[in-house]
Amino acid sequence: METTVSKEIFEVITPSELLHHFQGHRNLTRRVIETFPEDALFNHRIGGMRTFAEMLMELLGIAAPGIKEIATGKIEPLIEHVEHKNKKANLLQLWDEATDSINHYWAQIKPEQFRKQIKIFGQYEGTVWSSIFYFIDNEIHHRGQGYVYLRSLGIEPPAFYER
């Protein structure tokens, strides 16, 4: 008896729905940045953790460059430092530019690419979708650290569910 295995791909979420989800998280993180007092953004630490500004530089180095790499196939090194001159307005501008870049390059990613095996930044193996999930998960993780910082400063962070 011969058995035939068919490869069916079931779409659970469309690329545009995933982008909307991703941008919802980015919008919330932007509101967290806005909530920080400027001096605390660059100086406040707890238990040896990095400042929130340092965590944001990591996020800026991953999401938009990662989406660009997925769209273009051009591998770039992971750079986790961006010049911001210790100004919240500069970080917000960089965040907005990264959001625009994500939107621009996302439109170039074909739905069939999401299951493709890649090595993002020439280092991290996985699929396109697992890399994007990492970008989102990493942002949620660091935003959570930002919430702890804000609470330690006596500041109520934005509601996590208002994306």
Describe the structure.
- Helix content is 56%, strand content 5%.
- By secondary structure, the protein is mostly helical.
- It has a single domain, classed as Up-down Bundle (Four Helix Bundle (Hemerythrin (Met), subunit A)).
- It has a two-stranded antiparallel sheet.
- The longest helix is centred in the C-terminal third of the chain and has 25 residues, at 128-152.
- The radius of gyration is 18 Å and the shape is globular.
- It starts with 14 loop residues before the first helix and ends in an 11-residue tail after the last helix.
- The model has no long low-confidence stretch (mean pLDDT 94).
Order of helices and strands: HHHHEEH
What does the average pLDDT come to? Answer: 94
In helices, the fraction of residues equals 55-70%
Task: Point out poorly predicted stretches.
Answer: none
- Number-wise, the strands total 2
CATH class descriptor:
Mainly Alpha
The end-to-end span amounts to 53 Å
Give the total of domains: 1
> What is the CATH-assigned architecture?
Up-down Bundle
| Largest sheet entry | 2 strands, antiparallel
Q: Can you list the strand order of the major beta sheet?
A: 1-2
